[in-house]
Amino acid sequence: MFKIQNVTKIYENKKKAVDKLNLEVENGEIFGFLGPNGAGKTTTIRMMTGILDITEGDIFINQYNIKKDPIEAKKCFTFVPDHPEIFDSIKGIDYLNFIADMYEVSLNERKKLIEKYTKDFEIYKDLTDSINSYSHGMKQKLLVTGALLPKPKLLILDEPLGGLDPRSSRILKNIMKEHCSEGNTVFFSSHILEIVENLCDRIGIIDNGKLIACDTMENLRKKSDSTLEDIFLELTEDEKI
Amino acid sequence: MKKFKSIVIILLKNFINNAKSSLNVKNNKLIALLQLVLIGAIFVPAVYLSIVTFEAFAQINQPELVVTSMYVNSIILMFFLGIPIIVSVFFFSKDTRFLISLPIKEETIIFAKLSTIYLFLLAISAAFVLPSIVVYAINTTITLSIIIGGLLAFILAPLLPLLISSLLILIFNKIVRKSKYKNLLTITGNLMLIIAIIVIQMMVSKNAANPELIQNAFLNNESLIGIIGVSFPPSIWMTKMILGSFINTIYFIGINILFVIILQLMAKYFFKKSLLSLSHASNSTKKIYYTNHSKEWQLLKRHVLIIVQEPTFLLNTLLTMLVPLILYVVMSFSGDLSLEVLNSKQMNSYMVLIYSGIIIMPTIVSNISSTAITREGKAFWQTKVLPISNKMNIKYRIITSLIINFLGSLIVGIVGYFMLTLSMKIIIIGIYFAVTTTLFLTTIDFIINIYRPLLNWSHPTAAVKNNLNVTLALGIRFAIGIIVFGLYKLYPDMFNNYDLLLIAMGSIFLVLYLVTRFILYNYYIEKFSKISL
Questions:
Q1: In this predicted model, what pLDDT tens digit does every residue of A117-161 receive, in sequence order?
Q2: In A, which residues are within 8 Å of B389 by CB distance?
Q3: Which of B387, B388, B530 sits opposite A53 (nearest CB)?
Q4: Whose CB among B70, B205, B369, B439 lies 3.0–4.6 Å from B445's, allowing a Cys bridge?
């Protein structure tokens, strides 16, 4: 579904946030992207989504190079950031109509999907309120709903469960599974190891901008025979030494 | 006391750092230089004003009135500047929730916030009251009463404007908070405030230029300074205190202690209000609608709504659009301008210049294109992940700015059409000049914004006002003005035929627009694509 090839990101202050990263994720996978704070997770996701410029290397989304063919690449994915910073003076329904128009979702389809997801997330009755009256969690739910409207081949989420209550977290996890069962791919970063452990087909661990592990949970366990938390701490500690 | 001091320090640091980051300049030496220039830009005219005012009052043998005059002026200035600062510190501040979670008394937080505002206002007092005292002391005889009285006047000057501004905001907030047209009322209130500032500024400057009028004002209780000076006894007590009157010193200190007590009493009430203002009331209609529009329409709507839905942006835009009208209305009422004068035979040959000047004014004053990216703030990422080209992303930001500028020109153009004696030729030349100039300025302003995107702002004001982009955009207009003036001085014959002059200038701007547009879409598109939070 997407391929990250020798990608490096060096910021203006010369800090190397991502260092020759290589990663490939197949169709139908739920891929969890782990790493300590400042490891380069968000930078990688921002490069994948075209928000951030790539210093070196290439990223292909469904075979489209995000640098050379950004529009085609962007048609293949939608993105939910870690902080729901959106233009919030408009109403929730206006935001969803905006996203649906941008991805050319038909009226019938958007009506069906908006009702389905917003009722699941229990924000349907709030759609006619201004977004700036929403809580952090409600904004997050609105963004997830918007990201699901185009039925993207790749759904990218940066720390998606941060602001959600347990019920909404469960709903989102089910949605992610359902999305993958339809042949689509979900790529998300998280700090909640338990969720990554139970939800993901494969896990990638990044530290100091380098991918230090990438495998299925089973294979990772074979190497260490412990929980993901132990593996994560062990691997990231090794890197520091 | 230690906690109080810590809050004041952190609030001041936060304010200073926000001001620095709003400059979006990474070089610390350049920041220091800009700050020096800014301080100089405030102090130099203030000192000059003190000298001129002193000389004027010295002519009528009342040199001490320089302190009275500057004291009254600075109080008016502090009153108007205090309003946005108080609103910002109490009602738009994001730190209140954090501060109330700390083990500090509510009153301490409020008083620390009020003290921070007091310190901002004290800087204004330092710029206006202090120079007048120094100028007066140097030119007369330096006595102990001048030094002590002067220092007291300087230190206590911000208290009254702080109190009045706070009271007004409380009253206004009480009305606005209950209304469902909150944004509209806020904007109307702000517009009225700005009109009041223009009116008072004009009246004050008119009076300041005429020492005889000032003397009469004090004697006859006429005009603004007269009303404030005589009807506002503290200014008279302060003047007499500097002259050495003990009883007036007591009066002046006493009244200021009273101001502090009232401020303290208001503190708790203020706190509750500011907290209440943090929660947004919902006023929506409960009908969900599904609409289908083109990407182009949605982008345009998004950029228009970013302006319309944010009171600060809307007010800024409305003001820039309507500045010629506001100025005209104020100047008409003040008697400085009349339709008879504008439509007189002597002005006939200048009519094409007047009309072109009026309809281009919204673009000249406005700088909305220089903040077209900035206004989006941290939500900028959103259009970057959408399946649209960078060219399309840029195009609809510029079109939004053009629509707003042209709308402003259209409104003042229509009003001008009904007020002035215009021929079809004048209208066509004016429109041609306005359209080409607007196209050029809007495009070049947008390039400034690509250079300096400034997306991490803490308050909408920082996005559209306290922003170096705006200064740079106005700098371009100033440079054009200097070039035109230079050409007029060098080749006055070129300026004989105004029709031809405007057509030629319009054509130059058209060429400049085409060149700038080419550069934007061929060279700056790459830079735009690299903008990130």
A1: 999 999 999 999 888 889 889 999 999 999 999 999 999 999 888
A2: 70-71
A3: B530
A4: B369
